[in-house]
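This section describes the prediction task in plain terms. A model, or a person checking by hand, is given the sequence of a single protein chain and must write out its three-dimensional structure as a string of tokens. No templates, partner chains or ligands are provided. The sample shown here is typical of the held-out split.
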Amino acid sequence: MRAMVFEEVGQPLRAVERPVPIPAPGQLLLRVHACGVCRTDLHLLDGEVPIASPPRILGHQIVGTVEARGAGEPTMGAGERGAGAAETGAGAGERGAGAAGDGAPAAIGQRVGVPWLGWTCGECAYCRSGRENLCTRALFTGRDLDGGMAEYVVADERFCFDLPPGYPDEQAAPLLCAGLIGFRALRLCGDPHTLGLYGFGAAAHLLAQVALWLGRRVFAFTRPGDLAAQAFARELGAVWAGGSDEPPPEPLDAAILFAPVGTLVPLALRAVAPGGVVVCGGIHMSDLPSFPYSALWEERVLRSVANLTRLDAEEFLALAPLVPVRTRVTVYPLEEANRALADLRGGRFVGAGVLRVP
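The expected answer:
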């Protein structure tokens, strides 16, 4: 199979031929059709988020169809013990929903999506309390496990999700990270009436649609001078769009930072009203500068969001077609993964970038 492989920090991905992987018990072999590119991929390339055991195939917004399933039963310790809600009291998101979303095995030929969170132990205190996104032994797609920038991938069936039928492959891919992280970040904001989104890229353009559908007023902050992204935000329904160096025209109830720029944190804190919430939505951010306590005072809250849970995926993928969430994508062939990543870094497209794998 063809694959785009990370070998070392600072080097472009290399196109290689590899054997088609063989699924182990509890895994599915997927024929990849599309894979989104994500800012996390840039953090991996730059070494800001380390890959412990290169070489590694990147990509964690995977859309594919089931080609085969691993024979036999998963061994204990593979995250199966205690995974059912009846045993753990962990809620619906912990039940090992699998691709069908209801515990039924995935069918050969079924289209599924694979996100960043690729495996959890099912046994630690986090997994058993409905917080599997914080699992102490979690493995992540495209970092610890080979990802979707290839013609085939194997994935834990528990972390494969049935996709809404109305989305073409390229349109569905961004839902699996950009959509899910935005959805989880919004939950951590409480119930804001006014919501600021810093960095109007893949995640923000999906979340804005959900927030507007929920009756929120959205304020979009882009790179200073990025008039195309600002126009795109207004096109989607944002009541205001401007540079991240500008104050909003009114205080915000909450703000989410998708741009991995630490200097934005004190700006966002000053933009939210007393009691407001600022959520940092990325896996990596440049260092936060010092700022006066007055920026945090009056019960403002600063927090991060980490990864996702299966419950997040089930609920967001059910919600997306109701809104309906529309993804704006720029499509690249698999072999042009490096160009797609360079364009993402340079802000040369609005919305999301997606690799098509024919």
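For orientation: The chain has two domains: 2-175+328-356, 189-304.
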